[in-house]
Structure formats: C-alpha cells, structure tokens
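Figure S4 source data
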Amino acid sequence: MTARGTLLAGIAATVAACPLWAAKPLKDYSFIRGVNYGMNADQATLERDLGYARRLNLNSTRIWLNYQAYEKDPQAYLARLRNYIRTSHRLGFSTMPILFNGNGLDPDMLKPAFHPRGDAYVKAVVDAVKDEPGLLMWDIMNEPFTNSYWEKAAPDEKGTRESEITGFVRYYLSHAKKLDPVNAVTVGYTFSKELEPTADLVDVLSFHDYTELRSTIEEAYRVAEDVSRKFGKPMMNTETGCIARANPYDVVLEIAEKHKTGWYLFNLMIQGYWDEIHGLFYPDGTIRDPAAIAAVMGFYRNRDLTTILKPAPNREGHAERTLKAIEEALKDNTGSFTHSKTSTDTILDAAERAANLLESAEMVPMYAPPSAQIRFWREQPPDKRDRDAIRAFAYDLGLLLKKYCLLY
C-alpha cells in the first residue's frame, strides 16, 4: 500500500470508530454520556463546571431554553446560546437544547394564536445555531405531560388535553425539521410509555426514568426498546438519577450500560433548586457520593452477598489502639495541685483516627461524615470550640468502633 493509501485508510478507520456530530442524525447514540445543565452561568463558572464534567469523560449537556427569556432581548439571548455551544464544543461537549418545557405548561401555548410567536422564536434559535458543530440535536419539548394542565384535568377532559399537547409537539417537530433538516429532533418524554404518538416524526426516541426499583427501570427500557424496534429509531434516556425518588445514580447507570443506551444524568451541579436531591459536584469541585462518580466511570458497587468481603478495620490492631487513644484523651489530668485538661486537638486527633477507620469501612452514614464535623471544629480557634461536644463526639465514635469491630 502506498503512503497516501495508508493515510487514507487510517482516516477511514478513525471516522468509522468515532461518531461525528456532522453525520446527523446518527443511528446509534449509545456513546452519549451526558448531564443536564443550564446556560445561565457566567463564562468562568461555565468553564469550571464543564471542567469537572470533562474529568469524568462526560461528553454532552442538555440545556433548557425559554421563549420568554428570548423575547426580552433576542440578540443577547442568541449570543449567549451560541457562546454556550461553542464553549462546550471547545471543551469536548455536544449540546442538546430544549426549545419548550412541559413543566409549568401555559395552556395558551397550545392555541393556534401562539404559532406566530412560537414560530418566530424557534426560527430565530434554530437559524442561529443549526450550523454549529457542537449541536447534537433539538429536544422540542421537555416532559410534555408533566404539568397541572394535563395531570389535574377532569377524566372527561384528559383525552382532549392530551391531543392538544401532542398536536403542539408534532407541529414544532415538523417546524424545526423544516428549518433544520440536518440535525436530529427528539422529545424528552417523562415515561417511555409516552413515546409512540410522535415516534414517526422524531429521529431519536428519548424518555426519562426516575422509578424506584430495578424491575421498574428495566420495564422502562423494555418499553422504549419495543418502540425503538417498531419505528427503527435509536433511543436515549435523557433524564435519570434522583436521591429523593429511590433512583440511585449507580443503579441507573449500571442498567443503562446493560442496555447499551446513551444517557443524561440530572444533573451536573449540586446547586440551586434541586441541590438536596440531585447533582454530582459541589461548586468547589468536591462530591457528595463517590458511588455516583464511580458509576459514571463504569464501576458499580458490589451487591452480591456471595462475593462481598466485609472490611476489617482491626485486622492490624488499629481499632484497638484507637480506642485506647480515645480513652486516654478523655482522661483530664486534674488533681489537688493542677487543673490541666487534655487539649481539644488531642481529643480530635483520637476522634479523627476513629472516623477514618469507620468511614473507610463504610460503617457510618456518609450524608454527614464524622470527618466533616472534625474539620468544622479544627477550623475554629481552640478557645472557641465546644469542648463538651467534642468529648461526647469522640466517645460516641469510640462506641461505634467498638461495636462494629466486636471489641468487647
């Protein structure tokens, strides 16, 4: 083979191995490892947050747009969107913008009178960024039926309202496709059972799953896969993972990998309205749940009782020595001629040893790690520390260590 032939063969092999965003729509989106995010951050914050995501080898974000925010200052809004997509692309991320949001749906949007307003907004947004190489696809509407207009409708009105919402979604699927025949379109449905009414128009089937059991998550995938086969369309899970819905990140990602499905976690940052129940990173780059981070990297917690090896913190006698250190630290050296007391630093040293043993063996709840409390006290001036609280804390850690290491 000539040198030129070798070069061309290498290029062809690279193209075959790596999905190119320009070759759209794709037949397979299983390579997507994304997070839901927003485009309201300033440039420094955007680059910082995406930097965290990049360290996890994530490669896409899904962001909410808003026609009302666009109408307040169209040019500034489009410039911000364009900058977001370009910044993300430079950092290694594709972008899925969401044009409309079904959450908090305004019923007036569903009326034909809204079309001139909606059409102008969609045209402006699509025309502004449809040629950006970082654009992955358009999500026409997020969760069309997750709103009070449909959920609280009287039984005899439910069908009519469902038809109204579906009509709106189908209209803007067609409208967006006319404006941009190249990039893929999808609809981010709340449940996979909702996919069929627009499956003929979308390029990609997309559903969300926040259900509570492995069996219900598997069922969501089964339904989506049935629709995928029926219509010959690829599928994705574009929202998943929630502490408050018994939908752990490490569980949903393990199942997504099993089904070879692209995904978007909700969401990237532990910040804002959803901070108590969603998110991977705090703004300073620390994390809440190492199991979630491991799962993003493809490593999952062992839940097989036949192979689990329980940690033994006292294997080398460190638990026993730690208990003695706590006992010694809690003995204040007071007598007839002296009133000296053990320093709080010494007590905290003994408590930290216990905390490190208990935390590394996962023998204590980690929603408020003992080491976090120790850090809190260490950052205070010694004369401002609550000595009695520190003593009680160290004593309780000692009891836990004694209990779990069977040191009786």
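Figure S5 source data
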Amino acid sequence: MAHVASTPGFMSLAESRRRLLMDSLGIMVSAGGFGLVYGLSARAAGFSPLEAGAMSLFVFAGASQFVAIGYVLGGFSWVAIVALTAFINARHFLYGAALAPYVARVPRLQRALMAHVLTDEAFALAIAHFRRIGRADIRGYWLGAILSTFIPWNLATWIGVTIGGSIPDPTRFGLDVIFPAAMGGLAVGLITGRRELVAALSAAVIGVTVALAWDPAAGIIGGGVIGPLIGMAVRPGAKERAPEGQIVFGPGPADGLEGAA
C-alpha cells in the first residue's frame, strides 16, 4: 500500500531512540505509581496476589483494570464487566489503525504481541518515534512499551497487593500529575502543521465535553474519532504538502522490520 509522504523523518535512529528513552522516564514513574494504587485497590477488593498479578500481566489495561475492580465490588456479572471494559478499551482500535501502515510487513504473531503491550503511553512514544525517523523501528517500539509501562506497572502491582497498607498513597506525592504531563508533552510534539493542530484542539474540546456530559470513556472515543476527521477536512498549509508525484511505499523490509530480530 502506498501513501503520500507528509512527515518525513528528520532524526537519526540513535538520536530518536535516546529521545524515546528520555520520554519514557517520567512515564515509568507514573506507571509505577498507578500500578501501586491498582495493587492496593485489588488487595482491598479481596484479590489475591496471584489474581491481581495475572490481571496486570494478561489484561494489562490500566484504566480498565481500575474499572473492573469497581465493577467486582459492585457485584456486576463477569459478562457485564468484560463488555464494559471492552468499551473503555475501544480507543485501541484507533491506535492500531494509526500504527498499521508502519508495521504492515511485521509477522502477524509479532504484531499480536505488540498489540498486547499497546497502551496510551506506548502508542504516544511509538508514533512520535516513528515519525521522527520516518519509518518503523520495532526494537524501539518494544523498548518504549516494555520499559515505560509493562515492567513498572507489573512490578508495582505486585508490591501494592503484597505489602499493602504499609505503603503511602502515591497520589500524595503528586505522581498522578506525571502521566498527563508526559502525555501532553508527547502530544504537543506530534503537532507539525495546521491539520494536526485543528485535530488536536477539536478532539480535546469534543472529548472533554462528552466526558463531562456523559462518560469519560465515550469522551475519549468521540474525541479520538471525530477530531482527526475534522483535521482531515482542513486544507494543509503549503509547507505540509508533499511535492507533486512524491510517493512513499512502506513500510518495506528495510524499515518496517528493522530491529525485529
């Protein structure tokens, strides 16, 4: 599949990986803090360390795990819990669609494993990294996803659910602010032109409005779907247009699979 190049890479692979690791640091602290709170919540809900750890390992969907704990305490059936948490995680369809052109030639099994660790943070890190270098970097994707969230989240879950009440609430130290601040910084870095700016502002307004009027999960999905559509309707600036006839075929074996081994 071919697509017109609109955001060519402007950074070397080594430089972009260093940036990726630096961007991951704040997210690591935040993921650890939230994982700790989840472990404490799971313990309070009567989850054993094995059950709480298994959910973090095999489900690995932070916000949905918190919601599931609330539903368990509320006496919801497992069918309802699965359906409602799936709705919350529906935004991952958008993440997958955005990454698909970069990883189209990666083996399907590996893509399935990549999808398992695809979180909000992993997506933000990966898409920013891919756009900086103008292609996919599978090794970089794993670095960002595993180091920023998967390891700290699972480790903190185990600590929270086993040690329990002897740990102070991480939000007392302001760790809950790190995640939105880090994600906001990554999002700003992705705004490279008029279309991205309009899409970001539209998504923010729609997301907040729907979240306040109805449900936060619906706000995320609504903003994530409608915002980019509005951005696509905006005429790109002169500097954003690719030269006439310039086509990029991708990703090919030299870029989409780089670092896969």
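Confidence is low (pLDDT under 50) at residues 1-7, 242-261. The chain is about 70% helix and 0% strand.
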